[in-house]
């Protein structure tokens, strides 16, 4: 059995022995947490540097996972380097 590493706040589990790239494992864990309701809509995710340090990976791996989730519509980020938010709040048009 290979080495694995977990981030308990997000329940991100990395299986380094798997052939699945680390950024895909991170994105899958976060996507699953959003779908299962473990990450509430509008909740903040940790900054990429923090999550990378927690998981023992480079920041680029986490940035790539966050970018993929943003492209899929699971995350939205604010200008100025703020943290992504899971399931962004309703836009003004949707809330009226």
Structure explained in plain terms:
The chain is built from four helices and four strands; from the N terminus they run E-E-H-H-H-E-E-H. Helix 1 crosses helix 3 and helix 2 packs across helix 3. The chain is globular. The C terminus is likely disordered. The N and C termini lie far apart (52 Å). The protein has 96 residues and is α+β, with helices and mostly antiparallel strands. 41% of the residues lie in helices and 12% in strands.
Secondary structure topology:
Layout: E1 4-7, E2 12-15, H1 22-35, H2 48-55, H3 59-71, E3 75-76, E4 85-86, H4 92-95
Antiparallel strand pairs: 1-2, 3-4
Helix pairs in contact: 1-3, 2-3
C-alpha end-to-end distance: 52 Å
User: Which strand order does the major sheet show?
Assistant: 1-2
**SSE arrangement, N to C:** EEHHHEEH
Cα-atom radius of gyration:
14 Å
In terms of structural class, how would the helical and strand content be classed?
Answer: alpha+beta
Percentage of residues in helical conformation? 40-55%
Strand percentage lies at: 5-15%
- Number of DSSP E strands: 4
Unreliable runs: 90-96
Mean pLDDT: 79
Biggest pleated sheet: 2 strands, antiparallel
Number of helices: 4
Shape: globular
Short synopsis of the structure:
This protein has 96 residues and is α+β, with helices and mostly antiparallel strands. The chain has helices at residues 22-35, 48-55, 59-71, 92-95, and strands at residues 4-7, 12-15, 75-76, 85-86.
């Amino acid at each position: 059995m290979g080495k694995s590493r977990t981030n308990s706040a997000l329940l991100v589990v990395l299986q380094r022995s798997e052939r699945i790239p680390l950024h895909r494992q991170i994105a899958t864990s976060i996507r699953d947490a959003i779908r299962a309701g473990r990450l509430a809509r509008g909740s903040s995710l940790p900054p990429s540097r923090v999550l990378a340090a927690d998981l023992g990976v480079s920041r680029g791996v986490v940035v790539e996972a966050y970018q993929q989730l943003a492209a899929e519509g699971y995350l939205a980020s604010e200008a100025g380097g703020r943290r992504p938010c899971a399931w962004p709040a309703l836009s003004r048009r949707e809330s009226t």
